[in-house]
What does this fold into?
Amino acid sequence: MAEENVLREIEGRVATLTINRPDKLNALNIATRGELSDALAELEENDEVRVVIVTGAGEKAFIAGADIGEFAGRTPIDQFKVMGASNVFDAFDAFSKPTIAAINGFCLGGGCELAMACDIRIASDRAKLGQPEVNLGILPGGGGTQRLPRLVGLGTALKLLYTGELIRADEAFRIGLVDEVVPAPDLMNRVRELAGTIASKSPVALRLIKEAVRASVRTSLDEGLRHERALFGLAFSSEDKVEGVDAFLAKRQPDFKGR
Ligand code: COA
It folds into this structure.
């Protein structure tokens, strides 16, 4: 039961979470959000896993948004509770390891917000992205009004949010909403290759990089630079730093243990 809506697969150091509601274009219902949050909490504790990929089942969609069927008849209090309980967008944001969204099709509303809460977005050339909430008389509630302008700038974000327009992957790449576009059949290979590259690096360094970069959008430059310097000092207490420097000097590949 617990894994019905989210398939979990671990291969080596990379975990893949696949939203598994293809007949509903992988719309995020309450159960799916809960399973995603639970999966992340487990993966956080699993030291074997160094990178997490999120994608959607089927050919058509990454995630076509929140499950609109669940909106009908919901009271403000119901909605408030849903958004507060195990908020999956916050869970992705706070997750300490690198995350990659493999955007294999429609990436709309809450789907686009989930992708934006991931660290890196790689899209298939068939993907379509957008925040169409305005068409339902609502606004994004999973961080869309906050993360979209940080990625693409105020004007472009407001244009997408005001119109609800869906854009193609190449346009999403042009505005900075996705980081790479690849032909649809190659998407997962490319994402796994990237995940593998990242997973071969020092988990300690990855964690500190993520911490420092997350701080950059929340703090002043001065504070961020101070934070970076403190984390830089902290990196010098790790075995990974000793291994990385030794390996470089000995002209061999490092074997990072994440300690
Ligand atoms: N919530 C619930 N169900 C959804 C959904 C969503 N966000 N998006 C798609 N579905 C369901 C459809 O109702 C349909 O179910 P059915 O076969 O039981 O009728 C199924 O997924 C297939 O979708 P369909 O609309 O038939 O596919 P399409 O190719 O004609 O259109 C979209 C694709 C993405 C353009 C269209 O589904 C859509 O606009 N979805 C809503 C997107 C949205 O507004 N998201 C933001 C929500 S806040």
Q: What stands out?
A: Residues 12 and 49 are 7 Å apart (CA to CA).
